[in-house]
Amino acid sequence: MLNVNGKFQKALFSKKFIFTAEMGPPKGTNLETFSDHLALIKGLVDGINVTDNQSSVMRYPSIGGCLLIKEAGGDPILQMTCRDRNRLALGSELLFAASRGIHNILCLTGDSILLGDQPQAKQVFDLDSVQLIRMVKEFGAGRDPGGNALDGPVDFCVGACVTPGADPIEPQLLKFEKKVDAGAEFFQTQAVFDLDNLRRFMDYARRFPVKILAGIVLINSVGMANYMNNNVPGILVPQVLMDEMASVSKEDRLKKGIEIAAGIIRTIKEEEICDGVHIMAIGKEEAATDIIRLAGDLSCPLQ
């Protein structure tokens, strides 16, 4: 049985509507903007993810961002992908995280290196996300994947990703079950715009003892919406939202995107569709505070 550590796990094992947000670290060592965004968001959410070389672009490490969040009084969620490291390197990072009080792990396979800005890099993929979940759970039992004993306690809350809008959905449901069987305790979904798809997925997911946080991506331009529709499998921005975005001036599209995201959150919460939301304001992390406030979450203290 997991020993509850920190704000996120307390929320996860309660009945409250959960808010998490995602922060992308810089491509370099200038952490000023990251710290500024952290100061805005840390009091409004239950947990904060730090991306791990998102889209296969080398950036400041997730573990470094998580330490900054911890030092600032927030509760970090360490994202770990299998693309860049073998099981030895992943295991070492897990031990480091545990020794520094980072107890929340999101296990991801990782995007193809061909999507990034250094396609000549070597991919690893020693493990996939299901195998990484199993490895994290093995660590929690006091041993590494080879059965060797670990010296010192390791206690993690393990999460994974799922895509409710995948078409066909059956392979995604099979992978979801494998992740649950491996030990996943919470899921943060890919971007959700079509709530009917989310409702259908939740009819299935409610059979399992896990918490589901719907991914809310901030759309700040028509071009961004088109890119997601054309290039990100399992994500579809409906035409009605595209038209709504196109109906305002370019200067007002960020505001409109915030309104759309907040509206989706309100519906999810009011209808109790799932257990919470995970906000991904990609490149506009400061807007996550406006999304939460506009969504009307009175349980989050305003700063």
Q: What key phrases describe this protein's structure?
A:
8-stranded parallel β-barrel; TIM Barrel
- Rounded Rg: 18 Å
Helix-residue proportion: 25-40%
Please give the largest β-sheet. Answer: 8 strands, parallel, barrel
Oligomer: single chain
SSE order in H/E notation?
A: HEHEHEHEHEHEHEHHHEH
Shape: globular
Sheet with most strands: strand arrangement: 1-2-3-4-5-6-7-8
Number of strands: 8
Specify the CATH class: Alpha Beta
* Architecture (CATH level 2) name: Alpha-Beta Barrel
| Uncertain parts | 298-303
Average pLDDT score:
93
Please indicate the percent range of residues in DSSP E strands (runs of 2 or more): 5-15%
Q: Structural class, judged by helices and strands?
A: alpha/beta
The number of domains: 1
- Give the end-to-end Cα distance, rounded to a whole number of Å: 35 Å
Structure description:
- The protein is an alpha/beta fold.
- The chain has a single domain (6-291), classed as TIM Barrel, CATH 3.20.20.
- Helices cover 40% and strands 15% of the residues.
- It has eleven helices and eight strands.
- It has helices spanning 6-12, 32-41, 62-71, 87-99, 129-140, 170-182, 195-205, 222-231, 239-246, 253-270, 287-295, and strands spanning 18-23, 47-50, 76-81, 104-108, 157-162, 186-191, 211-217, 276-280.
- The protein has an eight-stranded parallel barrel with strand order 1-2-3-4-5-6-7-8, surrounded by seven helices.
- Helix 2 links the parallel strand 1 (18-23) and strand 2 (47-50).
- Helix 5 (129-140) packs parallel to helix 6 (170-182).
- Mean pLDDT is 93; it is low at 298-303.
